[in-house]
Fold these 3 entries.
Entry 1:
Amino acid sequence: MIYFYSGTPGSGKSLHVAKDIYTKLFIKKQNVIANFDINREIYNKKKNKGKFTYISNSDLTPKFFYEYAKDHHVLGKESQTLVVIDECQILFNPRSWTDKNRIDWINFFTQHRKWGYNFILISQFDRLVDRQIRALFEYEIKHRKVNNFKGAKLIPINTFVAVEYWYGVKERIGCEFFTYKNKYGRLYDTFKNFEE
């Protein structure tokens, strides 16, 4: 599956994905690959866990994912590794559609489930991502900070909502409310610069 997390800065996207990474690594004990690092102190303290792999945008290629799957996955089994690409518009910008690697990405994304991957792509808005890549999204999860709404400003803790849509038909599937939790918030540095 390809999930697309959208929302303005401060809307809870990073907190939501930190929760997803925590669940995948420490509860399901499965692997995670991301284009940002996590707090290694927290990761190293846990005994039973999945493998976390940080890879920079410059090394993030379909070829890497094919090789990783050959080395770490059981052939034909889905959802073995979660891949998180934050600020995905840097890699999949619509203005760079002539990029020679774009067709390789499209071919890979059309077959990613066969290779055992689920993806979470994160950006502020779907239009910042190439149309050919967007066409492969299964779900969009729109994030909002509830405290920014008129009556909700009285809520004493930061509260967020993630509204899930079936991307192809823009049909709302459900929503989830969540608040900040240290175990998730401390896992991920939200101020990482992806152009370094």
Entry 2:
Amino acid sequence: MEFGMKIRVLREQQEITVKHLAELVECTPSFISQIERGMANPSINTLKKISNVLGVSLVHFFDEDDGVTEDTEKYIIRKNKRKRFKSAMENTDVFLLSPSDIESKNIEMHLMRVAPGGKSDKLYTNSGEEVGYVLKGRLTVYLGNEKCELEEGDSMYFPGHIPHGWENNSDTESVTIWATTPAILRAGESLVLGETIFSASPKA
């Protein structure tokens, strides 16, 4: 089921109108309607607000896999069965690398692919700790008032309570792996601040 349809099903089950949901997530009713019909793709920030209102974790809206058949398979994430969320607004794909249906929520890993020019639309905070590693390309990480330039092979740690965001201001795709403890996407613990990411300097 597409995530837009999942939103509509949950909204109707809870008897929330499109207008009311739009007010709660601070967007227009027409945008909510477009999301539900698959005509618009929200940012991760907007989807997190929707998930908080509807009482589900963000990972609920990731692409579904085909399920598991063997008991040991629940500990393995096959590369063609990763749960995925695509944010066209941020030019970012997030793939969950850790199981989403096990009881433990102590750690979570995800792979993030950011197209050239892609960036988070807000700064995020959470109650955990994060470690990232750049597999390919470059990534600018905004950490509080600091701007950190990461290159291929670099890694980074920061406590989640520091407002943070990302931007790929290069001309090649950025691929990073992130480990978070406790599990943020599955536990639905992420918070979002209102600061807007400042734009990178124009390229010559």
Entry 3:
Amino acid sequence: MVQSRFFQRSNGMHKVVIGALVLAALAGCAGSKMKEARAGTPYKTLASDKATLVVAECVQFGWQDESVFGVDAGGFKEPIGAGGFTVYTTAGDYFADVQSAGTGSTINYYAAQDNIPAKRRLAALATCL
């Protein structure tokens, strides 16, 4: 059987490449879910006196807490227009758009369903206001 040299290397680089491809695929799925959700009404809209980056980083850190979210713990942050950020979970079922509003921020939180995980993510988000 002929194998590519790529998979014969023992340095683990192929795992990094495969991991990056998996994340890219998930981001594509998450992106389409988020686009559809934004066309509707947010699960909750919140306001903060804090800067967008401070709020976004706090939400990202809170959503990565395995003691609260278990295997679903995951928070990723990407910039969006006008200095804002989107913080989202792996599959994009839960995400928050943090945008500048005067000297503070407005947070639009979206959840795929009104369930306990959605409420837990909202509670974690609320600690960042």
